[in-house]
What does this fold into?
Amino acid sequence: MNKRLNQAMLVLAIVVVLTWLYMKRTSTKRIEKYEMDKSQIMQHLESDTEIDSILVMTAAAKMTDDESKIQKSYELAESRDRSKLVDFFESL
It folds into this structure.
């Protein structure tokens, strides 16, 4: 009976460790994805290309759920004010 209890505890410990590793890995991926999106939009804003309002709004939507911030990013993109847009995205 003691052997069965040890086996059950071992299996339980393995499941707990695997679950913890999976959760840690997925949270790290979320952080990397966020940074990738932020760096891409910053490159777009700092380049000499024309500002794409829809791209800016989509990037803001990926970074925040606040509708007012998403709307503000779109309005700043429409006004073509690069410096305010860069400051806005740095604050997100």
